[in-house]
Design a protein that fits this description.
It is a single chain. This protein is mainly beta and 154 residues long. The protein has one domain: YhcH/YjgK/YiaL (Jelly Rolls), CATH 2.60.120.370. The strands form 3 sheets. The chain has a 6-stranded antiparallel beta sheet with strand order 1-10-5-12-3-2, with helices on one face. The chain has a 3-stranded antiparallel beta sheet with strand order 4-8-7. It has a 3-stranded antiparallel beta sheet with strand order 9-6-11, with no helix packed on it. A hairpin with a 3-residue loop joins strand 2 and strand 3. The two termini are 18 Å apart.
Length: 154
C-alpha cells in the first residue's frame, strides 16, 4: 500500500509506474465534484474511475475486502474516512468470494489491521496483496465523496 497527498504528485509521480501516473493524473486534472456517481472510463476496462457519495459507518459495520485483477487508488475528494489496512495472509477468514464474477473478496476477520485516516486530497494505493476496509469512521454519518481509480493488473 502507498499513502499520499495528491498535491505532492508532481514531485512523487516519477517513482510510480506509468499506469499509476495515469490514474493519479486523472484525479489531479479532473473536476471531481462535477462527476456523476458511477463508473467513468479512462482507458476502457484497463483504467477507470468509480465515483461514490456515501456516509461513513463504524468500522464493525464495514467489511474488509481485497481484489485480484485490479489495483485501487482510493481517493477522498471531500469528507474523510478511516481506511482499515492489512495484508493478505492465510489467517484471514473469507466470508464471501466474488473474485471470479466481480473481482472482490470479503473477509469476516483480518489479521493485524491498522487504520489510516484519509482526508480530502489524500489517497491510498491498494495492491492485490493488500486488504482494505473503506468507509469507516469513529464518528457516524460523515458525508464522503470518494473516487476509486481501478487499474487492471497486466
Amino acid at each position: 500500500m502507498i499513502y499520499g497527498l495528491l498535491k505532492n504528485i508532481e514531485t512523487e509521480s516519477s517513482f510510480y509506474s506509468i499506469d499509476l501516473q495515469k490514474g493519479l493524473s486523472y484525479l489531479a486534472n479532473t473536476n471531481l465534484q462535477n462527476l456523476s456517481p458511477g463508473k467513468h472510463l479512462i482507458d476502457g476496462e484497463e483504467l477507470f474511475a468509480v465515483v461514490s457519495d456515501y456516509t461513513t459507518e463504524p468500522k464493525e459495520m464495514r467489511r474488509p475486502e481485497g481484489h485480484e485483477k485490479y489495483i485501487d487508488i482510493q481517493y477522498v475528494a471531500s469528507g474523510e474516512e478511516i481506511l482499515g489496512c492489512s495484508f493478505a495472509t492465510p489467517g484471514n477468514k473469507v466470508s464471501e468470494d466474488n473474485l471470479k464474477t466481480s473481482d472482490v473478496v470479503f473477509y469476516s476477520t483480518v489479521e493485524n489491521e491498522t487504520d489510516i485516516k484519509l482526508t480530502a486530497g489524500a489517497y491510498a494505493i491498494v495492491f492485490p496483496q493488500d486488504i482494505h476496509r473503506p468507509g469507516c469512521s469513529n464518528l457516524t454519518n460523515l458525508q464522503l465523496r470518494k473516487i476509486v481509480v481501478k487499474i487492471k493488473i497486466r
